Amino acid sequence: MPVATDTKKIVIHVAQIVIDELKLEDITPETFDPDIDLIDEVGIDSMDLATVALVIQDKYGIKIDEDDYPKLTTVRFIAEYIERKLKLI
Amino acid sequence: MSTEKITKIDVKADPAEKEWKFSDILADRKIRERWEKVRKYFFLRESTYDMTHRCNVKCDGCYYFEGDKQFASENTDVNSWRNLMKEEKARGITFVVLAGAEPSLVPELCEVCYKEMPLGVIASNGIKFIPESVGYKIHISVWGNDESSLRVRNAKNMLIRQIENYKNDPRAVFVYTFTKHNIDEVEEVTKILSEHGSKITFNIFSAPVGYDGDLRHNEESLFRTRENMVRLLLKYPDNVLFSHYSAVAHTHKYGLHDLYSCSYPRMNPSTDIGLGRSFRQYRTDLTWDRSAACCVPDTDCVDCRHYAAGSAVVTARLFRHANNPESFKAWLDYVDTYLAVWVMEYEKGKNLCDYFVAPPGYDIFL
Q: Looking at residue B61, which CATH number applies to its domain?
């Protein structure tokens, strides 16, 4: 699957990754609120977030710093982080 | 066996030079299966609880009787404990560790905790049997043979009494703590435990703050400990719950904090996510103090090689182990071991690495 490169598409793609990795049910990437707090409101833990970060590294060919991923707590934060990293490539 | 011999015989070449994708690492069927097995337990979120200040033995170097926590008043009210467990569940805790000083002396409190929070461990000296109605894993501390136990713990026939209480008990895991002086005794103790069908894992004595006794390890004793751990792992594969990487992580020249950046609140100011956010260590009066919160409070952090600390701290470092297959397999062995030791009915698989792998960013030993 080709990776998205504009913000809206990245948001949808990241939401899909989160849904897949966390095995969330009854939600689609389009209905996933990109500003929902993945830790406080979805209830994911550091191991899940690390897994999401590893998958995103793969899909976008970027390197996520170990100190950065704990701060990527919403789909939008993750998408913006990806965008910044892609601009640096 | 010298360091040189071990590295020549047992160490796999480091494949870290290639840039690995996580998906490429998971393309290996054995790795993927183990990953899928362990990740089901990512929901575990622990906190620990001192249950009483009483104990029926007095051990040299005991962590409970260091620092302020031993002076907290004792809450013996069953309803207070029930309410605490309900509150803990509400804030997302899914796994409890009932520890200091000796939880078997307050079985009614253990029972209340179990009814509210069915996943957990009790750390016990094993002298008093904990009723089977408390379905937690029970970690029974062993500090050498009976001669050493009498000397260090002032208790007679300790191992015999522990075995009488817990042989054939699926809850029980015997935790052999290596001090500087009981390394050579592990062979006879493991043999005895294996003959009784018991499960064994290993711990490293880690000095409490200000400890000036002679149980503290040095590089030579850590190295001999590692040799013994691995030898017994290979000799008693059905009884010893351990891995090569567990041996590396816990007997390295550097302690767990240096190797893996301890994520317990006591050493980790971040409350973003993980242990720094959710972990609490409750005293017997049901209060907790962030500045003292870790799995074994009052341990000298530089010397910390506790099995309990590693179970959380090494496991939390998934991200840094997932950059090449060897590191990741070693990490999976570690997590598989930790789950078998800590979670009822979790069955340990065959280790993926039968050789030493270095912690990310470090050498095997130095």
A: 3.20.20
Within-domain flag for B263: yes
Chain B residues with beta carbon closer than 8 angstroms to that of A39: 272-273, 277
Domain ranges for chain A: 7-88
The model carries a pTM of 0.91
Identify the DSSP state of A72.
-
Task: Say which of B42, B272, B322 has its CB closest to residue A70.
Answer: B272
Return the number of other C-beta atoms located less than 10 Å from residue B184's C-beta: 11
Eight-state DSSP code of residue B218: -
Distance of alpha carbon B249 from alpha carbon B229, whole angstroms: 12
Cβ–Cβ gap B22/A43 under 8 Å:
no
**Is position B37 within any domain?**
yes
8 A C-beta contact, residue B284 and residue B72? yes
Instruction: Give the neighbor-by-neighbor strand order of the sheet with B120-124.
Output: B200-204, B172-178, B137-142, B120-124, B95-99, B46-50, B281-282
Sign of CA dihedral B98, B104, B106, B109: positive
Q: How many structural domains is chain B composed of?
A: 1
Contact criterion met (CB below 8 Å) for B343 and B233: no
Taking CA–CA distances from B42, the nearest residue in chain A reads A47
Please indicate if any CB of chain B lies within 8 Å of the CB of A63: no
Q: What's the confidence (pLDDT) of residue B316?
A: 92
CATH superfamily for A7-88 is ACP-like (1.10.1200.10)
Provide the residue range defining the domain that includes B283: 3-342
Least Cα separation, residue A30 to chain B (angstroms): 25
Q: What is the mean pLDDT of each run of 10 residues along chain B (366 residues)?
A: 39 62 96 97 94 85 72 91 97 94 96 98 96 98 88 86 95 96 96 96 92 89 96 97 97 94 81 82 90 77 91 93 96 98 97 96 82
Give the per-residue pLDDT at B3. 39
Best B20, B37, B273 member to test A by mutation, with max A CBs in 10 Å, is: B273
Residue B119 covered by a domain: yes
